[in-house]
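Hi Y.,

Following your request, here is the sequence exactly as I used it, all 503 residues.
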Amino acid sequence: MFARPLIALFAACLTLALSAPAVLAADAAKPASHDTDSAKAGDFAKLPPFPADKTVHQTAQIGGKTLNYDATVGSLPVRDAKGKVTADVMFIAYTVPGKDRPITFALNGGPGASSVYLNLGAIGPKRVKFGTAGDSPSDPATLIDNAGSWLDFTDIVFIDPVGTGFSRARVPEDEAKKDFYSTDTDIQYLSRIIYDWLVKNDRLMSRKYLVGESYGGFRGPRITHYLQTQLGVAMNGVVLVSPYLDPGASENGDLSPLPWMLTLPSIAAANLERQGKLTDAAMASIIAYTRGDYVTDLLKGHSDPAALDRIVKRVTELSGLDPTFVRRSGGRLETQAYLREVYRSEGKLGSRYDSNVTEWDPFPFAPEQRTNDPLLDSIIAPTTTAMVNFITHTVGWKFDARYNALSYEVNRLWDRKGSERGSVQELRQSVAIDPKLRVLIAHGWDDLSCPFMASLLIVDQMPMMGDAHRVQVKEYPGGHMFYARLDSQTALRSDVMAMYAAH
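Below is the corresponding structure, written out as tokens. Let me know if you'd prefer a different format.
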């Protein structure tokens, strides 16, 4: 977040600032065009059409029972004001026969991420192994039943934004940037896709929910508010997984204590976990220190000569780092520096998304990290292979194109104007508009990309607006994709079920 911004992206990420060479992003992303002249406007109209929607019947063991469901791969068009199709958006819908079932729409983040991570990792009926310590990109990308799926209590529609998955723009790059790769237009067309799916499938009267991960968590409140006030569709509940809600909170670390307050508890959580001592009670004490003596001593600066000594002593205890390193950092632990330092003696790097997931550092003697994030690079192969095989082979939705699980090209083109203020304003407004709307914000303790402390502070500053439990923050062992750990996934499922049952 405060590291030198070079690659800004994730499958489930905020507008990340990863310490890796900019050339990685350029090399990793080649536009998935059908020919080299596709930048010409006329060529886009000649793109082969998407296949017709295709449905297969499947079963899975979920919630201790055998669940029969339909899996549908399909698409919806995006049209401009004149009715011209400007993009095709692919979705995967899982539905169970029966009356009065809720419907949940799911989005990941990036910008530039498809919904594969929530689908095959968190809440879909099948899962592939990725995102935990020891996972290998070359492990068999075999789908298994996902016992932690939400499908037994809600139908689910996973949406791939334009430029991700197989979803594509039908206009040249400059128009696509304006129509799809910017903060406001992204919210508008994705909201319309949700509306159109509900109308097409006669589900407007269903109870409706939205789940967004990381930048999808940034999208969540804005889509909810736009649907409420512009398209006339009200969500019953919103689940924000590792959300990126307020970019401003991590800025100006030279003066503001906030950037250091946000990450210290996650660093401490990772240290506790390495010792087998991570508990809610232990974290409550760390949160209290962060809100109290830590921020107070940071603000005192040179006005209290003993403040730095107190900070160094306590931060050294919490982080497990060498006290000399902590003192040279002023007790302000910059994320990427920490991730190299904590594993330097082992020749490894920690991941920004879960600092206890590591890989070998291929350039251990370089002054700065020269490789991309350990976890980020390792999840592309298993998720892409599993998803493409599911879509094209299992379901039989045949399409000849590259599947973008994580598009660096979309992220490069993204216009971030309008994202600076975050989504807290829409979060507050949506809750104020609807006295029955419930919001669950879920984080992994170890996540340094979208740290839980930010959401905790944001919610604590919100006015009560009735029932204090309508907006909750929950934390679980793990990192950005804490659901990759089965115990944390089970706990998330239980908390979400309780929220759905409240309606």
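The chain has a mean pLDDT of 89.

Thanks again,
Q.
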